[in-house]
Amino acid sequence: MLTKTGACAVATRPPVSLPKLSRRSRILLIIAAVIVLALLLGARLLDTYVDWLWFGEVGAREVFTTQVVTRIILFFAVGLLVGGALAVSLMIAYRTRPVFVPISGADDPLARYRSAIVARIRLFGVGIPVLTGLIAGLSAQSDWQVVQLVLNGTSFGQTDPEFGKDVGFYAFDLPFINWLLGWLFITVVISFFGALISHYVFGGIRLAGKGGQLAGPTRAQLAITVGLFVLLKAVEYFFDRYNLLLSDRAYPLFIGATYTDLNAVLPAKLILLCISVICAIAFFAGAFLRNLQLPAIALVLLILSSILVGVAWPAILDQFSVKPNANEREATSIQRNMDATRRAYGLTDVQYQPYAGKSDATPEQIKSDNGTMSNIRLLDPNILSDTFTQRVGRENFYGFPAKLDIDRYTVGGVAQDYIVAAKEIKTEGLTGNQTSWINKHLVYTHGNGFVVAPANTIDRAVKDANSDGGYPIATTSDTQNPSGAGSAAPGQTGIEVKEPRIYYGELSAAESDYAIVGGTSGNAPGEYDTATDRYTYKGSGGVPIDNWFNRLAFAAEYGERNILFSDAIGDNSKIMYNRDPRDRVSKIAPWLTLDGDPYPAVVDGKIQWIIDGYTTLNNFPYAQQTQLGAATNDSLNGVARQANSSINYIRNSVKATVDAFNGSVKLYSIDDKEPVLNAWEKVFPGLVKPSSEISPDLRAHFRYPEDLFKIQRELLSRYHVSNPQEFYSQQAFWSVPQDPTAEGGSNPAAAGAANQPGYYVLADTPGQTKPTFQLTSSLTGLQRQYLASWMSVSSDPADYGKIRVLQLPSAATGATQVDGPVQVQNRFQSDSRVAQDRTLFNNPNVTPIYGNLITLPVADGFLYVEPVYIRQRNQNSYPQLARVLVSYGPKVGYGATLQEALDQVFGAGTGEATTTPPQAGQPTSPTTPTTTPTTTPPNTGGGNAALDRAVADIQSAIAKLKAAQQSGNFTDQGAALAALDAAAKAYEAAKTAAPGTSTPPPSTQPGG
User: Is there a smaller number of Cβ atoms within 10 Å at the N or the C end of the chain?
Assistant: First the structure.
């Protein structure tokens, strides 16, 4: 017998209900829930408070509040949308449930579920939507940038070639529309399944009987919900037309709407839009009909149309019309892709210049390139970190990043590039009692000094692998020597620094690497400054912790009770955290993509970290997509790796600085008209300073950023092609060469060989009148090793960002191919002299290290220069420059110094061009031509005894050098070279004393 219970018909047997908890159990559960919630929310609130204090320290609290408010609004908006729609759906399903529901038997599980739900209807009716809304809100709040951009988007002043819409629509509006449609679809789907399950539980849907049964209210609610879904689909079809301009159908050749997309998919979207509207109307009508035939027919029509019109027809057109004639059919789309990609990546103003690529040159031609030759870089910043640490680091708690940096300074009127580094505190170097909490966080708090070393100079000529030479001439500007005086070799000066203490740097990236400074308590230990002096911080950096509330907050944040109870913390104490320059900029400007290599510079006497910031998009119409991580990955160590996100627009729109002493962060606009930056300036007014506020001293140290250069280099290897048919055939494409000095790099077939990085050099490239600081790279033929082109980007303030490409004649013209980096490295490795020394170097006690292989355009050809370092095989060893390799055309020079190697390639005296740098700001000028060396013994001209003796000494030294090379005796080679150098100088002195002598000396090259 059935009786009515509530609104449902159930069996006379009492329903099985959920077990009831005792009052004590309920109290314990409530307490446990409160504790868990407190732990979860407490940790989040603590992090929020600590961030709030930090943003206040750097004067960017409006950035913090804008983010928080936007996230909160999004959390509630999307949470209410999803949770509210589900609640309405459940409420409608519950209120329209059947009054009488037959049960299949005494053990019908649905009856038990119905009873349990009815008994706790508020728990289920409110709890489920609230939980769903919480999950949705938490997911949506992370998309705050999408919402802010649509509210503050600006115009690009450029339109797409298909619909004529401004690019700003694709950059700011379309991502938000896609995001909103996605959440509306989720809302409708969740509401549909909520109604479906509710109607099933409460009997509106019964599976018993032939074909089952569907109650009228159930049919109406489900039909209306499906109709809303189909209507949303119609809206999506409308906006999908614009998404076609980002189609990847032809990827990886190009991105953008293909011939098939424009002639088949685009019309299909409009057809499907109309069909979707008709189907939605059919579903709405079916909600009030007694059968579902009309909605069913509409659904079948929509599915068939999607298959036939949306899939089959484009596939047929693509297979039988496009692919057989792709080079013609896709020409328009390829041209659009080429134009858009160049605009999106800043490649519209590239200067291409034909370049001969000669394989021989005279000494006069080499010397005439004085601006390049006098600045040839010997020091590799990717190798010398340990050398700097051991030779200028002094105390064990100072250190340098794994990769040093390169910048240029004008010292004594001469502009020169330097290896630069900040001597930072390195807590990993602390040992013994130095690692105690007080020493680690209150004593060893800061680094001390700015170190520079001329990039083209070593301390003295190296004569053999065991000599004490081949090291950078490093000068340190610290608290003892603010100008570097006293820390350099005689005649060398450093860079004047007013405040050399470094509290913020790259070695402070660890989250627990905080410092507590400034305390004036009587128990404060004082910060280590020198062996005899202690220092108390007086700068503006850090968050005050001289009150108990903040001390408690940070003690909880770092899990360190000493912060709360230590007597060393008192009045004026501050805590410094988030000390890594890159992290500080990232927190203040989370919308920027930051370059992976910050570098220090002395600006107006202060040490400033300079970080490049990029504004990026991934929806620039027709522009090629680039995987950021893959495009910027190369053989360099010690740089932050980019996430492998996809972008198709990038601008170096911001230069950020972080003061190494007080941690202050400043953002400067590089391009005041950049649309994405303009949008973010509307979100955070006043955060980015205009370019007019950049001081000349700061601008003089701007470098063209490496990550942007790598991306542009990767794209330029294809997008230098101007003809769509040629682009389609790919025959004129180039490749980024592998780094031949890295492991596996000299083997083109080696799996995983890293790309060669770009190299900063101070040089004057063809077309320039003075040496400028620029970032350079070689490019080879597509999957070939011969040199195809050479590119450089200027960092000079006068033409910052100017891209120049020296383009070699193609192999198709019959021109002689120029060897690329891998081929040159192979030639180096196979040289008999290198092979002999490799045997000497590769012993149990020494490891050879091949430095950066730099390519320089000189005398209408390319000069390759590579330093070779050696390192002892022990824990405290460090690299030492041992040899220099030089190549020009087929010739290889290999010597203890660059001058010696150049003389071997071009003739005696050529290496002198490396020792006379031009004055800063003045154009380079050719040096006085010298007589070409010959192998003919000179006529001494009348019995000059000193001249005769010098000639005899030269010939004797050459003979000894030949014998030493043949025997492989490295020591004898060094002695012979020293004797040869002395004899050559004696000859020049004797010739000067006898002006009538005009014949040249014998060649100092072994074997002529």
Answer: N
Torsion of CA 968, 969, 975, 981, to 10 degrees: 0
Asked whether the predicted pLDDT for residue 724 surpasses 80, the reply is: yes
Which helix (H) or strand (E) covers residue 682, if one does?
A: helix 675-683
The rounded radius of gyration (Å) of the Cα atoms in the chain is 37
Cα–Cα separations (whole angstroms), residue 190 to 120, 184, 571 = 22, 10, 57
Helix (H) or strand (E) holding 973: helix 970-993
Give the number of other Cβ atoms within 10 Å of residue 695's Cβ: 10
Report the alpha-carbon distance of residue 764 to residue 760 in Å, rounded. Answer: 12
Residue 691 to residue 150: CA distance in whole angstroms: 25
Tokens representing 194?
Answer: 């909520």
The b/e string for 334-368 (b: 16+ C-beta within 10 A; e otherwise) is bbbbbebbbbbbbbeebeeeebbbbbebebbbbbb
Instruction: Give the tens place of pLDDT for each residue, 192-245.
Output: 999 999 988 888 887 765 556 778 889 899 999 999 999 999 999 999 999 999
Strand order in the sheet with 450-454: 405-411, 414-422, 450-454, 475-477
Q: Is the dihedral of CA 735, 740, 745, 748 positive or negative?
A: positive
Question: Three-class SS of residue 627?
Answer: strand
State yes or no: pLDDT of 13 exceeds 60. no
| pLDDT average, residue stretch 15-19 | 49
- What residues contact 6, with CB distance under 8 A and at least 6 apart? 118
Rounded to two decimals, the pTM is 0.85
Give the dihedral sign, CA 146/151/152/157. Answer: positive
Residue 64, both tokens: 């913090």
DSSP string, 55-121: HHHTT-HHHHHHHHHHHHHHHHHHHHHHHHHHHHHHHHHHHTS-S----SSTT-HHHHHHHHHHHTH
- Report whether 512 contacts 620 (CB < 8 A): no
Residue 1004 pLDDT: 43
Q: How far apart are CA 856 and CA 257, in angstroms?
A: 41
Token pair of 685, please?
Answer: 């007014």
- Inter-residue contact 231 to 280 (CB < 8 Å): yes
Taking the C-alpha atoms of residue 524 and residue 445, their distance in angstroms, rounded to an integer, is: 13
98-129 pLDDT, tens digit each: 876 666 655 666 777 777 788 788 888 899 99
8 Å CB contact between 475 and 487: yes
Under 8 Å between Cβ of 951 and 926: no
In the block, tokens 């509710």 appear at 198
Q: How far is CA 691 from the centre of its chain?
A: 23
Say which residues have a Cβ less than 8 Å from residue 695's Cβ, sequence separation at least 6. Answer: 603, 604
Judge contact between 846 and 858, C-beta under 8 A: no
CB distance 114 to 97 below 8 Å = no
pLDDT at 347: 97
Backbone conformation region of residue 484, classed left if phi is above 0, alpha if psi is from -120 to 50, else beta: left
More reliable by pLDDT, 526 or 291: 526
CA 493 to chain centre: 34
Question: What does the pLDDT look like over 537-551, one tens digit per residue?
Answer: 999 999 999 899 999
- How many CB atoms lie under 10 A from the CB of residue 21? 11
Q: How far apart are CA 856 and CA 378, in angstroms?
A: 13
Q: Are 804 and 353 in contact (CB under 8 A)?
A: yes
Residue with tokens 């614009």: 242
In whole angstroms, what is the distance from residue 291 CA to residue 430 CA? 81
Contact 648, 627 (CB under 8 A): no
pLDDT value, residue 1003: 43
Q: Which residues of 761-783 are buried (b: 16+ CB within 10 A; e: fewer)?
A: bbbbbeebebbbbbbbbbbbbee
Q: How many CB atoms lie within 10 A of CB 248?
A: 12
- Can you state the angle between helices 216-243 and 61-95, rounded to 10 degrees? 150
Average the pLDDT over 366-385 and give the result. 92
The answer to whether 679 and 172 have CB atoms below 8 angstroms apart is yes
CA quadruple 425, 427, 430, 432: dihedral sign: positive
Q: What share of the chain is helix, strand, coil (3-state, %, to 5)?
A: 45, 20, 40
